[in-house]
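Re: Re: ligand-bound prediction request (bumping)

Still looking for help on this. To restate: I need the protein modeled with 2-OXO-4-methylpentanoic acid bound, output as structure tokens. Inputs repeated here so nobody has to scroll up.
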Amino acid sequence: MKIIAYGIRDDEKPYLDKWSEENPDVEVASTGELLDESTVDQAKGADGVVTYQQKPYTAAVLDKLGSFGIKFLSLRNVGVDNIDVDAAKRNGIQVTNVPAYSPEAIAEFTVTQLMRLLRRTNTFDRKQANGDLRWAPDIADELNQMTVGVFATGRIGRAAMRIYKGFGAKVIAYDIYHNPELEKEGVYVDTPEELYAQSDVISLHAPATKENEHMINDKTIAQMKDGVFLLNPARGALVDTDALIRGLDSGKIGGAAIDTYEDEVGIFNTDFGSFDKIPDERLKGLMKRENVLVSPHIAFYTKRAVRNMVYFAMDANKSLIKTGKSDKLVKL
Ligand code: COI
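Reply:
Sorry for the wait, this slipped through. Here it is.
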């Protein structure tokens, strides 16, 4: 049995090598290159493919895998929004993801960024760098006095809720699907509008779908409280960036932490050598604002998460090849 793993980074390699040692019945090939039309031929002869990338898995790539008789594609991440679903189905390709490599990693980072916004650490860091050690006017808000609205109560949303509650915040939530435990606690509001109207902080934890693209837009921002804090560690596509900028300009949005950005592919996780060379003026404009924290999709990036992404994806791929089954199968 042979599995080829694409896009293997230096930080993933030791985990892949260890998995390989522990699974001597599997021949493991790996490459640092991403899976696209120029690299797909490397998969010829493999029984399964393991990947992680944010760039699209195109119809051409999936057709090629199909023509090699490869039916199993295991992603090392949660999001499956970059797969051409029709092409995967047409080729009978089964896809697994890693739904829970560490929901806590993302939740902890999200709350960290919120605390930085509330305590104005960006502003104090910049002031201190200029020798200004005064307090005023950068007085903070306290999370324990606030209502946090969690949009989507999957594993990550629920992990974030536990932390917000630990800080003493009032936590409410919106989701089409109600988690039975949370339902008992009565945290759910019935509509996104209610969530927006009641929350001092909006914490987004929804996957990207066709339906929720730009769900945060001029109209929904207008429904939010004045001075709302917006957190998006989920997917860039959820937020209309131009509307976010207008909201920040008007003061309607008091601060934002974006770990995801709608045009991040090819930009995040790249070294451009200097700030000026980052090829996205809109993003740079956001990065320059003191009440905006931009981070390059790093909420997930912990040792535990990376280890689990490699192990769970390799396990799932092996299981599909061996048995045709996996508990991580994605319903396409
Ligand atoms: C995902 O797992 O879908 C993420 O968003 C994290 C990714 C950048 C590895």
